[in-house]
Amino acid sequence: MAYFMIGSNDYSSYTSGLKITRSTNYNAQTNAAGDTVVDFINQKRVIEVEIIALDETIASQLKNDIDAFNVRISFRNPKTRALETNVDCIIPDNAIEYYTIQTNKVSVNKISLKFTEL
């Protein structure tokens, strides 16, 4: 069963952690009488994914998948335990970290990606 996908590429076997939180946007104002009025603007999910160290080929594929401004992901929702598909998200720039070079092996360090639902 798929656990985490970007587009049609399955990264489940490289995923070591998945955390889903909610980010709420609101505007609070206090009037002259001392009453605070809160206007709810929206609520978005933030999906944080930890990816284990990758070889050059998979790291290149991952970089290509997250290069676009708008990324479509699928992930297993911890509450419903169902795979949520085609969730449009954005990801901050510079998500992939530095390379580690070992004897005839180039790999990317462990990566933490943070996706924000659109």
Could you please describe the fold and organization of this structure?
The protein is mainly beta and 118 residues long. 9% of the residues lie in helices and 58% in strands. The strands form two sheets. Strands 2-1-6-7-10-4-3 form a seven-stranded antiparallel sheet, with helices on one face. Strands 5-9-8 form a three-stranded antiparallel sheet. The protein starts with a strand and ends with a strand.
Helix content: under 10%
Order of helices and strands: EEEEEHEEEEE
Globally, the shape reads elongated
Question: Which CATH class applies here?
Answer: Mainly Beta
The CATH architecture designation is Beta Barrel
Straight-line N-to-C gap: 25 Å
Strand order of the largest sheet: 2-1-6-7-10-4-3
Task: Please give the number of β-strands.
Answer: 10
Total number of helices: 1
Q: Mind sketching the topology for me?
A:
Blueprint lengths: L3 E3 L2 E2 L4 E16 L5 E16 L2 E2 H11 L3 E7 L6 E8 L8 E4 L2 E4 L2 E7 L1
Antiparallel strand pairs: 1-2, 1-6, 3-4, 4-10, 5-9, 6-7, 7-10, 8-9
